[in-house]
Design brief:
Blueprint lengths: L2 H4 L2 E6 H14 L7 E6 L2 H6 L4 E4 L2 H4 L8 H10 L1 H8 L4 E7 L4 H15 L3 E8 L6 H17 L2 E6 H6 L9 H22 L10 H8 L3 E10 L4 H10 L13 E8 L5 H13 L6 E8 L8 E8 L2
Parallel strand pairs: 1-2, 1-4, 2-3, 4-5, 5-6, 6-7, 8-9
Antiparallel strand pairs: 7-10, 8-10
Helix pairs in contact: 2-7, 2-10, 5-7, 7-8
The structure holds guanosine-5'-triphosphate (GTP) and magnesium ion.
Amino acid sequence: MSRVSNLKVKIVGVGGAGGNFISGIKERLNLLKEVESIAINTDLQDLRAAKADLKIPIGEQTTQGLGAGMNPQLGKKALLESKEKVIKVLEDSELVILIGGLGGGTGTGALPQIAKLLKTKEILTLAFVTLPFSFEGGVRKKIAKKGLKELYTWADATMVIENDKLLELSKNRREILIREAFGFSDEIVFSSLESILELLNPTGLITLSFENIREALKEAGSFFIGRAKSSGEDKIEKALKLILSSPFSPSNLKTARHILFSLASKGSITLKDIDKFTQVLVQKKLKDTKIAFSILEDPSLKKEEVRLTLLLAGF
Ligand SMILES: Nc1nc2c(ncn2[C@@H]2O[C@H](COP(=O)(O)OP(=O)(O)OP(=O)(O)O)[C@@H](O)[C@H]2O)c(=O)[nH]1
Ligand SMILES: [Mg+2]
């Protein structure tokens, strides 16, 4: 059994977007074979369509299986109606990753409540949530902001993907199909999740312990994770630059209380590379920041190529 599964990590998609994320991730990520995926929804039709190891309908009395109709109060009530069965599934976890789109009734109302249940059980809880695009209208934005505030209260660490920021990156913004726009935010959620699982990867030459991860993320409030590949001269620094150019990265590394990173290569990373990279971090005067890292070999990478995965927490 791998350490990822020993660790009892569960990934939980809440609401329509949450279920879609889980389905997409399950199709794409081999790593997800090692963690249990769960979809939770008030909407039975959506839940049926989701690809997850386990599906939990909530609030059958509250919503009649028809969804929470953009009403977070209903989403919350639905979760409270069904909280016993949700706890039962999650209580043996050591790490729970909640994902969903804020702006509707179920994700916005129920997801923070699940984080609250997990807090009472002292289970480390991360959340990846999206904020609606402006083109979805102001009401959804308002609903989402309120839910996010609540989520910050209960989850240990949250990464917020503001969908609008994804559009800022595109040149011909007005030409983008709506479907494509949601596809951008799907991509970020998938790659962020893949990155987290990479940090938990047990097969490295040097690995991060769960204690490293818990210490960094416990009650951190916010976190950011990103990754990039690079090759050639100063490849690790180049990868770092790419990651920090993400619109979701904090603008200053120094503000993070914890940095976890993982370096993967085909086997080409030298002590000199690590030394140089550590120097780069030292130059950023991160004297109050705790740093821990892992080194992995990944045969799927090209010779000379590295993949840097970087997590910043508590900024
Ligand atoms: N990236 C992405 N975002 C989505 C997707 N579906 C919905 N969203 C986003 O998630 C927000 C919430 O929508 P849903 O997840 O459908 O809402 P819900 O939580 O099921 O809530 P109710 O249907 O009102 O009970 C939307 O405003 C969108 O911004 C999807 O497939 N991909
Ligand atoms: Mg829904």
